[in-house]
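hey
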């Protein structure tokens, strides 16, 4: 933890001495991927017996305690069910808790009234993206279905990004999708969940490299601990996957995410984010600032102040022209 706080408030000059930075050169730290829920066994069927620790409520006060301890200022809350009610609830949480800087919600993009569903929530300044739980769809080519594409085509008009939640086997399809929708901003969740436990990297890296060749696709450095051996993972086991992510996406399209509370099946918040922040220790300060917050802010066009009184990147209400451009 000490090194994390060190990144936040100080840097080293050429001779290796620690130098204090002025407040203007500290950057907002954003956790690009968190979930909140009131646990209900009927609505969270994916939480099986092996994930018993997740069978309770996870609410903003819990998250904020963990984040403050680890030096994070703000987060993006991501949907975990597929209901409009959850989207509404996450936006209400974001209204009540300024540290929730953005919400990636769900609407039924395949529905004939997809436009109406998007319009219902898009006026809310904190709705920044949409996600569908594509990894659970029986059709491996779900992303290329015409009905889904019709809904996806609407997002740009509303300034919304799209989160890709897929496994490795879906990566070629995701790459084709990103090519078809070249003006749409996409972000890959959890690096498409490589098999860290089994140590497979060759096939995954080839597929992720193809996706990263699309300049409109960004990537979250999140979810790796959940794909590793929950009881015995080490930061060293994650490094080769982080290396590939940096090689193919570069430091300007990567963003750290905890995937809290899902990460708690394998780790705790502090250890989860430290696996990435420690990895970044060798990289230049401007790259660390980008991956630890700046990129998330740019990608989702999050308000600059994020509850800390900073100048705003876009109006707090309404929609800037910039946000409409894709
Ligand atoms: Zn997640």
């Amino acid at each position: 933890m000490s090194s994390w706080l060190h990144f936040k408030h100080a840097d080293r000059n050429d001779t290796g001495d620690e130098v204090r930075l002025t407040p203007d050169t500290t950057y907002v730290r954003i956790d690009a991927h968190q979930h909140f829920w009131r646990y209900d066994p009927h609505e969270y069927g994916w939480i099986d017996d092996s994930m018993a620790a997740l069978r309770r409520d996870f609410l903003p006060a819990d998250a904020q305690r963990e984040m403050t301890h680890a030096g994070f200022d703000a987060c993006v809350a991501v949907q975990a069910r597929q209901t409009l009610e959850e989207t509404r609830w996450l936006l209400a949480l974001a209204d009540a808790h300024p540290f929730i800087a953005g919400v990636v919600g769900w609407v039924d993009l395949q529905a004939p009234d997809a436009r109406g569903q998007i319009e219902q929530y898009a006026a809310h300044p904190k709705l920044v993206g949409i996600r569908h739980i594509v990894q659970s769809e029986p059709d491996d080519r779900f992303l290329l279905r015409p009905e889904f594409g019709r809904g996806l085509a609407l997002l740009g008009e509303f300034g919304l990004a799209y989160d890709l939640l897929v496994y490795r086997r879906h990566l070629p399809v995701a790459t084709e999708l990103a090519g078809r929708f070249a003006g749409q901003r996409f972000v890959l969740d959890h690096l498409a969940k490589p098999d860290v436990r089994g140590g497979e990297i060759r096939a995954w890296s080839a597929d992720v490299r193809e996706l990263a060749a699309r300049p409109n696709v960004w990537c979250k450095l999140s979810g790796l601990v959940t794909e590793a051996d929950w009881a015995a993972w080490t930061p060293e086991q994650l490094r080769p996957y982080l290396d590939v992510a940096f090689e193919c996406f570069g430091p300007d399209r990567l963003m750290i995410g905890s995937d809290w509370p899902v990460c708690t099946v394998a780790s705790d918040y502090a250890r989860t984010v430290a696996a990435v922040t420690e990895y970044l220790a060798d990289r230049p300060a401007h790259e660390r600032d980008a991956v630890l917050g700046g990129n998330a802010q740019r990608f989702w066009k999050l308000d600059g102040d994020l509850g800390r009184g900073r100048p705003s990147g876009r109006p707090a209400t309404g929609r800037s022209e910039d946000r409409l451009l894709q």
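Residues 33, 35, 78, 259, 262 surround zinc ion (CB under 6 Å). Confidence is low (pLDDT under 50) at residues 1-25, 307-326.
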